[in-house]
Amino acid sequence: MGVHWCTFVIVLGLLLVLESGLFVNGGLTSSFTRKFEKTVDMPLDSDVFEEPPGYNAPQQVHITQGDHVGKAVIVSWVTMEEPGSSTVVYWSENDKNNKNIAKGIVTTYIFYKYISGFIHHCNISDLEYDTKYYYEVGIGHTSRIFWFTTPPEVGPDSPYTFGLIGDLGQSFDSNATLTHYEMNPTQGKTVLFVGDISYADNYPDHDNTRWDSWGRFAERSTAYQPWIWTAGNHEIDFAPEIGETEPFKPYTHRFQVPFEASQSTSPFWYSIKRASAYIIVLSSYSAYGKYTPQYEWLEKELPKVDRSETPWLIVMTHSPLYNSYIYHYMEGESMRVMFEPWFVKYKVDVVFSGHVHAYERSERISNVDYDIVNGKCNPVKDDSAPIYITIGDGGNLEGLAFNMTEPQPMYSAFREASYGHAIFDIKNRTHAYHSWHRNQDGGCSGNLIFLVRIMALPKLQSWRLNCEESWQFVVARVISHCA
Ligand SMILES: [Fe+2]
C-alpha cells in the first residue's frame, strides 16, 4: 500500500471521527529537528543596515494605521543630519495629478550618551478604502517615494490577510523570518506585531544605534504595509543604572499608534478596525489591575465591538496567557486572571502573543471558574474561549525556547521551537485560515488551522475545522457548539 493510500485511510478514519462529533484531544509537540546554530545579530556593516544615499535622506520609514477604521496612515521616518521637512506628499494611484500635502511633527530624545536623529511622524487621513497610494518624504533635500494600499471598507465580509511576527530583533534569523514573510505567496497586507522589536537593550547602555539599525533593516516591509505595534518588555528600556528611568522612552519617540481614536489614554493599549477584524492591543507591561486605566478602558471597549460589523475579534498581548514552555512560564498569569473572563464573555476569536521564542497554539480552553474555595483551577475546553497563539519566534539574538513543560498539557494543541512567522487570512465572516511557517521549511507551512464559523442570530453557532500538518501525518477535527 503506497503512502497516498495510507494517508487516505488515515484521513478517512479521522473524518469518520469528525462525523461522530467527538472531540479528539491531540496535543502535539513537533518532532521537527533543526541545526542548533547560535543566533547572532547581523554586524552593523551588513547591507540590510545601509543608510539611503544622499544628504539627510529619510531612513527607518515605517507606517501604521492612523485612525480607528483604516482611512488614515501614520508615516514615520528619521533624518540624521538636520530636521528637514516633516511634510508628506501623497497621491492616489487613481489620481496621480492630485497631490496632497500633510504636515507632521518632529521629535528627538537623548538616552544616556546617545542623541537620536530627527524623528518625524505625519498622519495622513481621509484616504479612500482599498486604494493604492504613493507617498514622498524628505522633500527638503533628498526625497524618497514609497507606497501602501488602504484596507477595504470595514464590514463583515471584507477579506483581509494579516501577517504575524513577534520578537524579531536583528539577527541573521530575523532577516530570514522577514524574507520568508515577504515571500509567502499568501501575501500578508498588514503585520500584527506582538512586541519586542529591536533588542537594543541587550547591548551595553542599551545602545540606541541598534534602534536605528533595526529601523533600516525592517524598512523594506514597514514602509510599504502597516505594522500594528504591541509593546514588549524589550521596549521598556528602563535603565536607572545609567540614569534612564523613563520607561518606553525610545519606543514612544519612534513609534506612534492611533490610541486616542479608540478613547484610550495611553499608546500602550488601543484598538483598531481593519476590514472584518476588530483588533485590541493590550500592554503586558502597564498596570491592568482593577481600577487601572487599562482595565477600565478594556471594560468599556469590549462591549463596543459589533460582531455584525467586525465578526473577527483579535487581541494582541506580548506575554502569552497560556504558555507551556519553561521560558517565561506563567508570566502572563496575572493578566489571564484579570482579563480571561472578559475574553470568554465576549467570545474573542484568537489572542496573539509573543515573548516566548517559539510557536504554540492552544486548544479553545478557559480557566475562569476558580473562586478560591471551589478548587476549579484547571483549564477546561470552552467553545466560547479564544485560541491562544504564541508567535514569539521572529529570530532575535536571545535564541529559541527549546525547553518545554512535560508532559504537554491538554490546553496546548501544538508547539514547536523554530523561527518563523504566521498568517491570519480572513476570507469572510465565517471563514479564516491560520498558518504558521517555520523558516527552515523554505516557507512551507508547519502548522495549519482552518476556522469556520456559522453565524446564526441571536445565538452564535460555530463550527471549526482544524487541520494540522506535520510532515508525515494529518490530524483533522471538527468541533461544533452553540453559545
Ligand atoms: Fe519579550
Written description of the protein model:
With 483 residues, this protein is an alpha+beta fold. The chain is 15% helix and 31% strand. The protein has six helices and 28 strands. The strands form six sheets. The chain has an eight-stranded mixed β-sheet with strand order 1-23-19-22-18-17-16-15, with no helix packed on it. β26 (447-456) and β27 (459-470) form a beta hairpin. The radius of gyration is 22 Å and the shape is globular. The two termini are 44 Å apart. Fe (ii) ion binds at residues 167, 196, 232-234, 318, 355.
Which short descriptors sum up this protein?
disordered N terminus; 28 strands; 8-stranded mixed sheet; 483 residues; disordered C terminus; 6 helices; binds fe (ii) ion; single chain; alpha+beta; 31% strand; globular
